[in-house]
Amino acid sequence: MDSIFFQILFIPLGILASLYFVSFFKNTILTYTNDSEVDIIWGFSPIVFVSIFYVFSQQTLIHTVLTILVYLWGIRLFLTIFSKHQNTHFKEDKRYTEMKKSWNQNKFLFNLRRFLQIYVLQFILSLILVSPILVFMYYLNQINEFNQLMFTVGGIIMFIGLVIEHFADLQLKDFIKKKDSHMKSICDIGLWNYSRHPNYFGESLFWLGVAILIIPITYLGFISWAMITFLLLFVSGIPTAERGFKGNEEFEQYKKEVSPFIPWFRKKA
């Protein structure tokens, strides 16, 4: 990669680093009221990166379509996370609250670990996630032939992933709103009847589409897809979401019948 690429990259890095620093110090001064607001920055990060690289690119149709798809992904995630915080009156997500309970309570060590494990780590992960797209956007103008098939297939998969996430969110929101009339504690309507986490599947599918779309320039997109899928399956996605239902008999039955990730036909009890 040439020096111009890194000069352009410095702009969104500076913007996002500033956001993370401001968030950290604000929450530290206010006795770390809500470290989970970094999740909102997570949804905002790819939009910042892609916007800067789009401005410095030749802004072809390919650049524009990819930018729009990333915008749709970021806006959906931002609104979903913001709505979640709004519904809980902006209380800290239990993931972060539980995580910090076992930490050393020495103020300096505690804040150092907060800064590194929550803020810096998420900043690094967001950079890893979006870097392949930036490489693609920057070097696209330097190739003589472009594989239109990979672009089309990847774009379609990205769009399908977004649609699945969107409808999964709507169905879950509708279920929660009418929860009392359902007489159930577990959402198993629509897509949720075929996957326990269709929104996470849609997220993984979106980044698989990204990896396929940018193949003509780089295979690094598969690292982003593997990373986000690993996090969803084994770290902050499914394990965290299902931990709160431990001991719930209705959920245990649902767990036996419904695929955890990839939508599939429901097993008979």
Please write out the topology.
Layout lengths: L2 H27 L8 H18 L5 H27 L6 H8 L5 H33 L8 H30 L1 H4 L15 H16 L7 H15 L2 H6 L5 H9 L12
Helix pairs in contact: 1-2, 1-5, 2-3, 2-5, 3-6, 5-9, 6-8, 8-9
Structure summary:
This protein is mainly alpha-helical and 269 residues long. The chain has 2 domains: 1-142, no CATH class; 147-269, no CATH class.
Give structural notes.
By secondary structure, the protein is mostly helical. The chain folds into two domains: 142 residues, no CATH class; 123 residues, no CATH class. Helices cover 72% and strands 0% of the residues. The chain has eleven helices and no strands. Helix 2 packs antiparallel against helix 3. The radius of gyration is 20 Å and the shape is globular. The mean pLDDT is 90.
The unreliable regions are none
Q: Give a quick account of the main beta sheet: strands, pairing sense, barrel closure.
A: none
The chain-level structural class is mainly alpha
Mean pLDDT reading? 90
Strand proportion, as a percent range, falls in: under 5%
List SSEs in N-to-C order.
HHHHHHHHHHH
Shape: globular
Fraction in helix: over 70%
Our count of helices gives 11
Summed up, the domain count is 2
Evaluate the radius of gyration: 20 Å
